[in-house]
Amino acid sequence: MKKTYINGLGCISAQKTFDTVFLEEAELNVNDTVLPLKTPVYKDFISPVAIRRMAKGVKNGIVASALALREAKLETVEAIITGTGMGCIEDSEKFLKSILDNDEQFLTPTSFIQSTHNTVGGQIALGMHCKGYNLTYVNGSVSFESALYDAKMMIEEEEASSILVGGIDETADSATSLFQLAGIIKEENQSPYSVLESTTKGVVLGEGATFFVLENEIKVHTIAEILDVAIFNRLDLEEVESKIISFLASNDLEINDIDAVLLGHNGDVDSDLYYKKLTDITFSNIPQVYYKHLSGEYDTASAFGLWVGSKIIQTQNIPDIAKINTLDKQVYKTVLLYNQRNGIDHSFTLISKS
C-alpha cells in the first residue's frame, strides 16, 4: 500500500501566506468580525480577461493551487479533489439578486454557471488541462477532510500517483448578514475579539483557499507524510479523549509520541469546551497550537490548519503568534490536528516528518 506525501503547499488567507516563509508577517486582528483576505496579484497567475468573470473564491483557488504545484515542481496532476462548505456563494447571491431585479426575465447565465460548488475544481482542471478524476465534497466542517480522505485512499489503492487537494470558502454580503442575524458571528462593538479568552458565543468569520499536492513517493522537497485521517459526525464531550487515544493507537502511537497538537479553537464559548480538557490535561505536556485567530472561522478553515501543521514540520518551528502554551520541542516529527464545530463534524488528521 502506497504512502501519501505532501509535496507542495499553496495558501491564500487573511494572513500573508504567499511569498513568505511561515507567518513571519502575521497580524492579529481583534477588531473585525469578518477578517479581510490578504490577496496576491491575480494577474500574475490568471489572464486579466478571465479575472473579470471570476468570483474571489475561484481566483483564490486557482492561485493557491498554482502555488502548490509550483512547490511540488509539477505542471499537472492525475486528479483534483476539493472541499467547500458554501461554494461560490458570491455568484449565487448575484444570480438570485438578478432574478429579483429583473422579475425573473432576461437573465444572463454567467453567475448561475459559476455559482456551483464544483466551479473551483473545474476551473483549475481547465487551466492545467487535467481530464482525470475531479470531485468536490460539500460536507460542512469536514468538507476538506472528506476530500483529503478520498485522496489518501486513491493513492493507497494506486488509482493515482499525484492529486491536488484543497479547501475553499468565501464570504459574501448577504450570507454574512444572515450569519449575523443567526448569532453565528460575534456581535458588533464587542471588540477585542479574543479566541482563547472568549466568554461569548459566535465566531469571527473568515475565508480562504488552501491547496496541497499529494504524491505517492518521497522527493527532495517533500514536506510531510499524511499518516491517517478520521471523521466523526458527533461526539460527546467525554468521548473526545478516548477517541483520540484509540485513533493514535491505530497508528501505533500514544499521547506522548505527539510533538505538537493543533486545535480548532474559534472563540465560541460553547464550541471551545471540546478543547478545554485536551489543553488542560490530555496534552498539557505537549506544545499546543491554534490558528483560527489568524484565519477566521469557515467550513474549510481546517485546511489552513493543515497548512500550519505542515509548515511546523517543514520549518521545525512554531511561531509565537500560534502558540497556546509556551512548550517547545527540539524536533517536530509527529503532529496531530483536531477540529470540530459546535460539537459536530469532528476530524483527526495525523501527519509526520517524512
UniProtKB/TrEMBL annotation:
Record-annotated Beta-ketoacyl synthase-like N-terminal domain positions: 46-216
Pfam families to which the protein is assigned, alphabetical: ketoacyl-synt
SUPFAM superfamilies xref list: Thiolase-like (SSF53901)
InterPro entries named in the record: Beta-ketoacyl_synthase (IPR000794), Ketoacyl_synth_N (IPR014030), Thiolase-like (IPR016039)
Domain of life, source organism: Bacteria
Keyword terms of this UniProt record: Transferase
Name of the protein in its database record: 3-oxoacyl-(Acyl-carrier-protein) synthase
Organism of this sequence: Flavobacterium granuli
Lineage of the organism: Bacteria, Pseudomonadati, Bacteroidota, Flavobacteriia, Flavobacteriales
